[in-house]
Amino acid sequence: MDNYSFFDNVNQFVVRAAQYMELPQGLLDQIKECNSVYQTNFPIKLDNGHYEVITAYRVQHSHHRLPVKGGIRYSSFVNEDEVKALAALMSYKCALVDVPFGGAKGGVKISTRNYSERELEKITRRYTTELIRKNFISPAQDVPAPDYGTGAREMAWIADTYSAMHTNEINALACVTGKPISLHGIRGRTEATGRGVFYGIREAVSISEDMESLGLSPGLEGKRIIVQGLGNVGYFSAKYLQEGGAIIAGIAEYNGGIYDANGLDVEEVFQHMKENGAVLNFKNAKNIENSAELLEYECDILVPAALENQITEENAPRIQAKIIGEAANGPVTTEAADILQQRGVRILPDFYLNAGGVTVSYFEWLKNLSHVAFGRMDKRYEELTNRGMVGAMEEITGKELSDTQRQLLVRGAGEIDIVNSGLEETMVNAYHTIWDVMKTKETPSLRIASFIVAIDKIAAAYMSRGIFP
Ligand code: NAD
Fold first, then answer.
1. Cβ distance 423 to 193 under 8 Å?
2. Which neighbouring-strand residues pair with 73?
3. Residue 334 pLDDT grade (very low, low, confident, very high; cuts 50, 70, 90)
4. In a designed cystine with 187, which of 29, 74, 105, 416 is the match (CB 3.0 to 4.6 A)?
5. Which distant-in-sequence residues (6+ apart) come within 8 Å of 429 by Cβ?
């Protein structure tokens, strides 16, 4: 795997998908390439008085729509190839779920565990300044979001730095999404990716003909799931899947994993990890010191939610899951995907399954541009109208509803209801669009079908601008 290129890996799929389409070669080449690649190296003063030079990137993969959008990753593995691949996946992801943005990604080559909060704040603010200097951040051009190693705290530092340097820009806070609610973030963003993973998996297992061919019964109830990574995406995916009736049989973290065929309580494991720094030694669960082994344990669905390149040609033959839900970006290599497909394993591709985050980021951006929270204008009016309708129904039927029934019927939609409804609509519709393309074009996988849907939309955007005939 020494010569492994994540970006080449993504492009291999693009080329395969293009074989089912009729695109001019030049247009395909344009779609595949990254439009702008920026690397910066800047110094920061550490708490101990020493200086360290930090390497960081921002890649804008596709300008077919603006702004471009994509998370910022803090990881010691960050490199140009990885950021390019993740930026490309963002373009395909946005197109796939009809989020009107081009794709981008940022990366800072640090392991967050090695820095204090003060140092992380310095790094984040300096990185933001470097992005501002080169026009690689703005509400109209390039809007970052959280990714591996970053969250609402980092997004707040970015928004604060940007708005402090753009005091006259009324939409300045739309320069980044995934912000805390107190800084004009949106309810439901933190959990959006995991919630989207849940909707996607739920939809996939609801199709009887697919489940029959996998030897599974339709529905989430009782499906045994192993999750890799109990961070933002892994935790919320596991939590919603468990609430939806699935059994979380295994959880893998970087420093060890646990397995219990009878099911693990996700919330309890999460608290246990917070207290002990590891999931190991949880109640009656079996410890698996080398957590990579857990991916090969018996289960119905495997959800890698940590990093890319986790299922390779080396371990793919030993994977026992019948469905792999790619919650992380690029967890299955091209070679591994081929092996798994031959073995009849169904893969729900990353740029579909983890699109919930960017979908709700889009809602946050819209909220920031409109300067009003969803539901603020109509919630009370909706309640009033519903109350009137319920009253009329009670009068006509002569029957009175219980307080709980009435509450349920009259309730107007608040921000979280609207966000979750928009997210569910997006994930459900996209799944069926992909599934239909897979059937009509007879593609070998959902991933190829997803690329066809995405490339088609990107190509149409380029062509509508007269760039290609
Ligand atoms: P995170 O930093 O919140 O969590 C990642 C977790 O994985 C951490 O708990 C970490 O300890 C664990 N981990 C690292 N290496 C591991 C290993 N070898 N085995 C098991 N666990 C390991 O990151 P996140 O935001 O949850 O992102 C996870 C993946 O999801 C990434 O691929 C990211 O690009 C993708 N993603 C994230 C979002 C988002 O909204 N955060 C959106 C789309 C895609």
1. no
2. 107
3. confident
4. 416
5. none
Residue 73 DSSP SS3? strand
Note the Cα 433 to chain centre separation in Å.
Answer: 19
Is residue 200 in some structural domain? no
* Residue to mutate, 197, 232, 308, ligand 1, most ligand atoms under 8 Å from C-beta: 232
Q: Where residue 113 sits, what CATH number does that domain have?
A: 3.40.50.10860
Asked if 399 is an active-site residue, the reply is: no
The residue behind tokens 């640090």 is 110
Residue 345 backbone class (left: φ over 0; alpha: ψ -120 to 50; beta: rest): beta
Domain membership of residue 26 (yes or no) is: yes
Indicate the number of domains in the chain: 1
Q: Distance between CA 172 and CA 368 in Å, rounded?
A: 9
| Identity at 58, one-letter amino acid code | R
Flag whether 275 is in a domain. Answer: no
The number of C-alpha atoms within 13 Å of 303 and in the hemisphere containing its C-beta is 36
Q: Whose CA is nearest to atom 22 of ligand 1?
A: 254
Whether residue 435 lies inside any domain: the answer is no
Give ∠ CA 356-358-364 in degrees, rounded to 5.
105
Cα separation, 61 vs 119, in Å, equals 29
Residue 232 C-alpha to ligand 1 middle, in angstroms?
7
Give me the catalytic one of 105, 122, 223, 239.
105
- Provide, rounded to the nearest whole percent, the portion of the chain with pLDDT above 90: 96
- How many Å apart are CA 342 and CA 317, to the nearest integer? 10
- For residue 429 the two structure tokens come to 């519709």
Core vs surface per residue 245-262: b (16+ CB within 10 A) or e: ebbbbbbbbeebbbbbee
Phi, psi of 104 (to 5 degrees): -150, 170
- What pLDDT shows up at residue 134? 96
Q: What is the pLDDT of residues 144-178, one digit of tens each?
A: 999 999 999 999 999 999 999 999 999 999 999 99
Strands 256-259 and 36-45: what pairing? unpaired
SS3 146: strand
Which amino acid, one-letter code, is at 109? K
Which H helix or E strand runs over 12?
helix 6-18
- Residue that is written with structure tokens 């004009």 in the block: 184
- The two structure tokens encoding residue 292: 């990579």
Please state whether beta strands 301-304 and 286-288 pair in parallel, antiparallel, or not at all (unpaired).
unpaired
Cα(460) to centroid of ligand 1, in Å?
Answer: 33
pTM to 2 decimal places: 0.95
Question: Which residue in this structure is represented by tokens 């707040």?
Answer: 156
3 state SS of 142: strand
